[in-house]
Specification:
mainly alpha, 12 helices
């Protein structure tokens, strides 16, 4: 910093000029140094904007982490609740399967106990019984059915085959249609008797065993469901701790940068006061000794040029202090509380708001516009390109109008749907949007039918047009009164 002394009452012109030159050079040097204040203030504003952007990004990451925790909790709760609600059906299914196994085993035991004898089947003597036993057919459980097929040697036409339960089909000489039918009837009657004797319901011990299994699974699922909010709370607490650590790092860096900026600003303020004193000293010297010529006037004019305007300093946004004694919360209130804890206060000032946009988080995270809205978007987009059922008789004005309407509906649906898919602005589609889209769809169909000679004389186009008008009116009324919500 340049210093000076009080001008002396010098009488020597050389000393007067030297003193005048010293004052002018001091003023010029201070003015040049003060000229750096405007770039400094602009750089400090950019720093503040950058810090606000870093805080906003940190808050965005925190909100996204909370969003993932909420979605994971919602998925787990839905899955576990669905499994709990399905336990009764699972118990009924297990009882049904256990009863089916029990009946099948009982029928198999009964069939294995029903032996094939000559007295049981008409037309089959003891010789054929021995032949059947030689082929492994001794009981009603050893074969399933009979069928006709070509003879094993390829000669003699078709013969009767007996299909064994385990193994290949066999042919017994002497058993044809007249003996095969009684054999089949004997097995069918044996199966009917076995089914009639089979148990119709589960024994109490088996039913109790299944109920015990289902009850154990119910207890386990209920325990898992009770642990879901705790796990979500722990995840939120961890995300909050990471967010707090990140904010602490940002706050420390911001504090250091703010202290350095305050020190530089204090230097500039001191320099400005010194410049005012030097100008007053120079003015007093000029009043005392007068003008010293052209070179003096030119040097003084350069030195006394005004310093460029300095934009006002803007204080950095202060992060809100954490609430004492506040523990981790769960649910939507905790997420809203955590979302609001790190919001930076955006400073006012027109063009200075660039890069200092605060993140706006949904009050009910997880509520987003459905992906099903892509169906009407794709439909109206294709209609805007290819038209709505146009024929050779469709007038040009109708084809252009339907395409324009389809394009307008597509753009409007995308304008409403895209922001509501973003997690930061997640929300349901506005109420009445579904009615409006359905009305527009039916209106396009009615317009295509009015221009088609096959349907123009019928009442169907008029009915569709009336329904479309009612849907559009209902959608407009609901859209105007309901606001955001479930779109019907």
């Amino acid at each position: 910093m340049i210093d000076s002394t009080t001008p002396l009452q010098a009488t020597d012109p050389a000393e007067i000029r030297a003193e005048r030159r010293r004052l002018v050079e001091s003023v010029g040097a201070h003015r040049r140094l003060l000229a750096e204040r405007r770039p400094f203030e602009l750089a400090d504003r950019r720093r503040l904007n950058r810090e606000a952007g870093e805080r906003a990004r940190a808050q965005a990451r925190h909100g996204k982490a909370l969003q993932r925790v909420h979605e994971k909790q919602a998925r787990s709760e839905r899955s576990l609740t669905g499994r709990l609600n399905g336990l009764d059906d699972k118990r009924v299914g297990q009882e049904r399967r256990a009863l089916a196994v029990l009946r099948r085993e009982s029928i198999e035991r009964s069939l294995h106990g029903t032996r094939l004898t000559a007295s049981e089947v008409n037309g089959i003597g003891s010789g054929l019984v021995r032949d059947l036993a030689a082929q492994g057919i001794r009981t009603a459980a050893d074969f399933k059915r009979v069928s006709w097929g070509k003879a094993p040697n390829g000669r003699g036409g078709e013969v009767l085959y007996i299909h064994r339960t385990q193994g290949r089909k066999v042919h017994i000489n002497g058993i044809g249609e007249h003996r095969g039918r009684p054999l089949t009837e004997w097995r069918r009657s044996a199966v009917a008797r076995a089914e009639a004797r089979a148990p119709k319901e589960l024994p109490p011990d088996e039913r109790h065993r299944i109920e015990e299994i289902i009850e154990n699974e119910r207890v386990r699922l209920q325990a898992e469901l009770a642990e879901v909010p705790k796990a979500a709370g722990a995840a939120r607490a961890e995300a909050g701790q990471l967010h707090a650590e990140r904010l602490a790092v940002l706050t420390g860096a911001q504090r250091e940068a703010g202290e350095e900026a305050a020190r530089r600003r204090a230097e500039f303020d001191e320099m400005a006061e010194r410049l005012i004193a030097l100008r007053a000293e120079l003015a007093a010297h000029v009043d005392l000794y007068g003008d010293l010529g052209f070179r003096d006037r030119r040097a003084r004019s350069r030195a006394l040029r005004p310093v460029p305007d300095v934009p006002p300093a803007i204080p950095a946004p202060r992060a809100p202090d954490p609430e004492p004694g506040s523990g981790p919360k769960t649910g939507a209130d905790a997420e809203a509380h955590a979302d609001g804890e790190g919001d930076a206060k955006v400073r006012e000032g027109g063009e200075d708001r660039e890069g200092a946009k605060a993140s706006a988080f949904p009050s009910t995270p997880g509520i987003r516009a459905s992906l099903g809205w892509l169906v009407p978007v794709v439909f109206f987009g294709m209609t805007a390109v290819s038209g709505a059922g146009e024929t050779d008789a469709t007038p040009l004005w109708c084809a252009v109008a339907t395409r324009l309407v389809s394009l307008a509906v597509t753009v409007e649906l995308l304008r409403l749907w895209i922001p509501r898919r973003n997690w930061r602005t997640a929300d349901a589609m506005p109420g009445g949007t579904g009615f409006l889209a359905s009305g527009a769809f039916l209106g396009l169909v009615a317009a295509s039918m009015f221009t088609d000679p096959l349907y123009a004389a019928d009442s169907a186009p008029w009915a569709l047009a009336v329904v479309a008008a009612l849907l559009v009116a209902a959608g407009a009324v609901r859209r105007a009164g309901a606001g955001p919500g479930t779109s019907g």
